[in-house]
UniProtKB/TrEMBL annotation:
Keywords: Transferase. Belongs to the CoA-transferase III family. This is Crotonobetainyl-CoA:carnitine CoA-transferase CaiB. It comes from the Bacteria. Residues 340-364 are annotated as: Disordered. Signal peptide: none annotated. PANTHER family: L-CARNITINE COA-TRANSFERASE, SUCCINYL-COA--D-CITRAMALATE COA-TRANSFERASE. It comes from Streptomyces melanosporofaciens. The lineage of its organism: Bacteria, Bacillati, Actinomycetota, Actinomycetes, Kitasatosporales. The keyword Cell division does not apply.
Length: 769
């Protein structure tokens, strides 16, 4: 589209988080220059990771001190700098924020580190395992009373990359008003804690410390099929469909149609389901379950995903004829109908570093000087933006909460007959409601809907649709995560909305995208853990796939970052009038792109290997002296291993790296013996003093005691515990959000003036363009 802006981005990173953030900018059409030392970024030693995350970038051999030298460096014309330096490392290279602000006042700097730029861990390096441990997410992944797990791949790194993109676009939008750049501080551990917000709410309500639920027990389970694994996922009212699916008369035994009896007799009927599932093929069982309306999922591995018809139809899995070993084998987790994806390769060292990247790119637009825009200094980044929120539960509602947090006017639209189901979510510890009184909204609803306005509309009526259409004409953004086909029946589908408002940014967050042979299938977050391939690479070695579980629902959490980032990119760059079709399944699968590439080009199948990762050893969680208390260690260099051997005398101090790889079980046993005799926090402190990358595996109770999370506002207490903010914008501090809105009476009876008054003048306000 003509008139769109493209930004110039300089990337100086060594981590997956930094590379993934740069890749996202490049995928959206921005010019990304990767600055590397003469030996190249360390990620080049991980061939398929670099192929996946280096795609569509330029490369220049430039040391950090050359970047900071003067305004003739690439930073002089750059809009964004992506870096993963700790504070001391940044200062040593001349890239600390104070220096950057002095020499490049227009520059937006995105900092992606494991633990942030302040606090006792700020100089510590770390990866997704340490971030998920310190943030508390690892406490929720794995089987009860067994070691906590990091999610497969580098999930916190990729989630933080999406947050970094969102923060950068907010800062660039604010720069248009102020003429000043900003620092966007993203800590992977904060992002991990933010995604585990349900645990905070549960702990705040009743003092219970949520822990791992696993995938081998509970109300939903992963069971073995004839040729793989299937997630048996259903709601209580769907029991008859479960009985029909498995067809075993023992499931129709007297009393099993009662939910309470089923709970008491779970061992009996789960044994029947396991026996029945073992004789069925995984994909066939999944397909038949979906036909019956059951949100089952099969545990897709790399082989199945690369042959999956849904993913091929949508262009996510790229055709074999277009693949290159130095390029991703999968596309992007979003589509814009009418646009086509192309296969792009990662750059050779120093390739095209002195000239703009090839391909059609709009020229970057320079930001106005501060004197021209100073009157808007104090505005929130999204101030003046109007977003209509048709989202429910988490994916859509959490996306629009992120928009509201940074200044957008968000109108949550529900109806009395069909409110957001999260309003009625039953929570242990919730206050009882007096007879005849309206039940208060669930605390789960509050975290995803704070800071919004509410409007009740019955979109089955002509008048309700007319009001919705009037809102669409005045809005900038519409967010929805309905099942495919629902918006058309409501009269708010993209075709209708675009006809009413050609500039509207329309965001669809669906299970598998708005088209394709499985677009109509239903899902929960656990379904998508399985279908995306994440569950197949998460778990204990040789055991069943592991999902993030209903208490986390990782796909729902990460897709909200994607949705908010894509909206912010669209409104900042002028990419108006588009339909952003985001697939939750593809979003999670995209984070495993390097593993798919390795499978395609080498035939090696990615599998779950606990917490072990290529290029790192030891790399796991270990028991501490307190019951069910754990700590994480992630050694990625010979220096880390020597430091570890100085602390734990049972380990050798000078063995080569391949010795540590060959003897991982022996090493882990020696570490476990040492850690199990010591209190968790004391063991972590001793390891860290010696230079060993280590962190406690925190819980929601730890987060509640640690002022860090309130100081950094990853969680809020206003006064109830509430999901906070996933990053720090140093130039803008969002206020605590207003309480989530109550469900109002249907507004069909209101005239235009009354409706305007109810919405605070939004309908009369000129929409920013």
């Amino acid at each position: 589209m003509s008139g769109q802006r493209a930004f110039r981005v300089v990337e100086v990173t060594e981590s997956v988080a930094g590379a993934a953030c740069g890749r996202l900018f490049a995928a959206l059409g921005h010019d990304v220059l990767l600055c590397e030392p003469p030996t190249g970024t360390p990620l080049r030693t991980r061939e398929f990771t670099f192929a996946a995350l280096g795609a569509d970038k330029r490369s220049a051999i430039l040391r950090p001190e050359q970047l900071a030298a003067d305004e003739t460096s690439p930073l002089g014309t750059a809009d964004v700098l992506i870096t993963d330096f700790t504070p001391a490392a940044a200062a040593a290279e001349g890239l600390d924020f104070d220096r950057l602000r002095q020499h490049f006042p227009h520059l937006v700097t995105v900092s992606l580190t494991a633990f942030g730029l302040t606090g006792e861990y700020s100089e510590s390096t770390g990866d997704s395992l340490l971030a998920e441990a310190y943030g508390g997410l690892a406490t929720m992944i794995g089987e009860p009373n067994r070691r906590p797990l990091s999610l497969g791949g580098e999930q916190s790194a990729h989630a933080a990359a999406f947050v970094g993109l969102y923060g950068a676009m907010l800062a660039l939008r604010n720069r248009d008003r102020t003429g000043r750049g900003d620092l966007v501080e993203v800590a992977l551990s904060d992002v991990a804690a933010y995604m585990d917000w349900k645990s905070d709410v549960l702990h705040d309500l009743g003092g219970r410390v949520p822990k791992r639920a696993g995938s081998s027990q509970g109300g939903w389970r992963v069971v073995r099929a004839k040729d793989g694994w299937v997630g048996v996922i259903f709601s209580a009212h769907q029991w008859p469909a479960v009985v029909e699916l498995f067809g075993d008369p023992r499931l129709s035994a007297p009393g099993l149609d009662d939910a309470e009896q089923r709970a008491r007799r779970s061992q009996e009927w789960w044994a029947v389901i396991a026996e029945a599932a073992a004789s069925r093929e995984a994909v066939e069982l999944y397909t038949e379950a979906q036909r019956l309306g059951l949100p089952f999922g099969h545990a897709a591995d790399a082989e199945r995903l690369m042959a999956d018809e849904q993913l091929r139809t949508r262009g996510f899995v790229l055709p074999p004829g277009s693949r290159r070993r130095d390029a991703p084998v999968v596309g992007l987790p979003w589509t814009v109908p009418g646009a086509t994806s192309s296969t792009v390769s990662a750059p050779r060292l120093g390739e095209n570093g002195g000239s703009p990247a090839t391909g059609p790119r709009p020229a970057a637009v320079r930001t106005p000087r501060a004197s021209a825009v100073g009157q808007h200094k104090d505005a929130a980044p999204l101030d003046g933006l109007v977003a209509l929120d048709f989202g429910t539960i988490t994916a859509g509602a959490a996306t629009s909460r992120l928009l509201a947090d940074y200044g957008a006017t968000v109108i949550k639209i529900e109806s009395q007959g069909r409110p957001d189901p999260f309003r009625a979510w039953v929570m242990p510890g919730s206050a009882e409601t007096a007879a005849g009184a309206q039940a208060p909204a669930s605390p789960m609803f509050a975290s995803n809907n704070a800071g919004k306005r509410q409007l009740s509309l019955d979109l089955k009526t002509e008048h309700g649709r007319a009001i919705a259409h009037r809102l669409i004409r005045r809005a900038d953004v519409l967010v929805e995560n309905f099942r495919v086909g629902v918006t058309a029946r409501m009269g708010i589908d993209y075709a209708t909305a675009h006809r009413l408002n050609p500039d509207l940014v329309y965001l669809s967050l669906s299970s598998q995208g708005v088209f394709g042979p499985e677009a109509l299938y239903g899902s929960f977050g656990s379904t998508l853990d399985l279908l995306s391939g994440l569950a197949a690479v998460t778990g204990y070695p040789g055991e069943r796939p592991m999902w993030s579980g209903g208490d986390v629902n990782y796909p729902d959490q990460v897709v909200s970052f994607v949705g908010a980032a894509l909206v912010a990119d669209a409104v900042t760059t002028g990419r108006r009038g588009i339909h952003l079709d985001v697939s939750q399944r593809e979003t999670v699968a995209w984070t495993l792109a390097d593993q798919f590439g390795e499978y395609v080009w080498t035939g090696r199948m990615p599998v779950s290997d606990g917490n072990r990762r290529p290029g790192a050893t030891p790399h796991d969680t270990y028991p501490a002296r307190e019951p069910d208390s754990w700590l994480a260690i992630a050694c990625t260099s010979a220096g880390h291993r020597r430091a570890l051997a100085e602390v734990i005398s049972a380990l050798p101090g000078h063995e080569p790296d391949d010795w540590w790889l060959r003897h991982q079980d022996t090493v882990d046993a020696a570490i476990s013996e040492w850690t199990a005799r010591r209190p968790r926090d004391r063991a972590v402190a001793q390891l860290r003093r010696a230079g060993v990358p280590a962190a406690p595996v925190n819980t929601a109770a730890d987060r509640a005691r640690d002022p860090r999370y309130r100081e950094r506002r990853a969680a809020l207490s206003v006064p109830e515990w509430l999901k906070g903010f996933p990053m720090i914008l140093h130039g803008h501090t969002p206020p605590d959000p207003s309480p989530a809105p109550a469900l109002g009476e249907n507004a069909e009876h209101l005239d235009d003036d009354a409706l305007d008054e109810l919405l605070g003048g939004v309908l009369r306000m000129p929409s920013p363009r």
